[in-house]
Amino acid sequence: MVDAEATVAGTPVLITVTGPDRPGVSSVLFTALTRHGVDLLDVEQVVVRGHLTLGTLVAVHRDPDGLREVVEQAMDSIGMQVRTSIETGDDPAPRRSTHVVLVLGRPITARAFGMVAQALAGLGANIDAIRRVADYPVTGLELQVSPDPADTTPHPHGTLRARLVEVARSAGVDVAVERAGLARRGKRLIVFDVDSTLVQGEVIEMLAARAGSAAEAEVRAVTEAAMRGELDFAASLRRRVAVLRGLPASILDEVAAELSLMPGARTTVRTLKRLGFRCGVVSGGFRRVIAGLVDELGLDFCAANELEVVDGLLTGQVVGEIVDRPGKAVALRRFAESYGVPLSESVAVGDGANDIDMLTTAGLGIAFNAKPALREVADTALSHPYLDAVLFVLGITRDDVERADAAEGLMRRVPIA
Length: 417
Description:
- The protein is α/β, with parallel strands linked by helices.
- The protein contains 15 helices and 15 strands.
- The strands form 3 sheets. It has a 7-stranded mixed sheet with strand order 12-11-10-9-13-14-15. It has a 4-stranded antiparallel sheet with strand order 2-3-1-4, covered by helices on one side.
- Helix 6 (213-227) runs antiparallel to helix 7 and helix 8 (250-258) packs across helix 10.
- The longest helix is centred in the middle third of the chain and has 15 residues, at 213-227.
- The protein starts with 10 loop residues before the first strand and ends in a 10-residue tail after the last helix.
C-alpha cells in the first residue's frame, strides 16, 4: 500500500485542537486551512465528557509558520486551544490492529485498567486505540491492539488470552479477546442455553419444589454437580426427573408462568434480530416449559427435552433423544446447517459443563456466569449478570442499541441497585 504522505509534496504539519466541544470547530479550522491551500493527510477526533481533541495532519506547500499564525488566530476566535508542530523524520508505518480486547466492569477502576495495560505491555502488545462501548449496565472499554514490531519475543498461541484472563480474575473485571477484522462482525446465528443464562434459576429445581423440600434439595445437589461436570448429564437428568413422578403435568405450565428472564435478555435478542441474526435456544431443560418463552421472544429455533405425560401425570421419564452435552453440539450443527450458516459464524452462550461441546463447536463461545469447567474452554467469559454484555463482545455498542430502541419507542434504562 502506498503511503499517503509519499504521494503528496509539502511539509507535514500536525495541528492539535483542544477545548469544549461545540458545533463549528471543524468548520472554522478547515476554513483557515483552505485559505492556506494545504492537503489533508489524516484527521482524528475524540470527545470525552464534552472536551474535544481534534488532530489534523496536513501537507503545507508554503510558509508553515504563516499557517501556524492563521490557525492560532482562527481557533482563538472561538475559544479553542491549538498546538502545531512540523513533523520531521520518516513517517512511522501505520499500525494494523490484530486483536480487540474488551474490558467490562462495574466499575472499571484505574487499578484494574492499569493491570490490563501493564499485561499488554509485558506481552509486547501496543494499544492503538481505545473507545468506550458501554456505560450501562456495565462500563465497557474496547482496545484495538497490535504487536510491537520491536518485540521479537515468541509467544505461544493463546498467550494473550490466557494472560488477560489471569489478570481479569485478580482485577475484578471481565476481559474478552478476539481477532480484529470482519470476522468479528460477521456472526449470523446465536444459540443460548436457557437455565441460568436466558432465564434466572434452574427449571428442574422449580419443578422439584412442587414435590417437596427434600426432593428440591436432592435435585439442586445433583444439578450443581452436573453443571460442574462431576456427573454425566444424561444420567443426572434421569435421576432428577424421576422425583417428578406422579405430579400433575399442569405444574409445567405453572413453572413456565413463573420464569424470569435474565436482565438484558430481551434487549439482546431484539438487537440481534434487528441485525439479521438467527436466534434460538438449545436447552437441557424441557420444551413445554420454555415454549412460551420461545414464542414471546420470537426465537427462530428450539431444542429441549420432552417429559413423558400419561393420563395428565408426569411419569418421571424423558422421552425421545436427550439433549445432553454432546446433544447440544449436535443441535447447534443442525440449526446452523438448516440456516446455511457456517459454524465459524455462530455464537453459543451457556453456563454449565454440559455447554462445553456447544461452546467449543461454535465460532465464538461465551461463558456466562459460568462454572470453572466451562470458563476454562470458552473463548471469553462474562461474570456480570447482564445478558446484553454479549452484544458488546460482538462489537455492538450501547449507543447502537439505544438509538435503535429509541426509534421504536422502546428506549429505557432500568435502575441498577
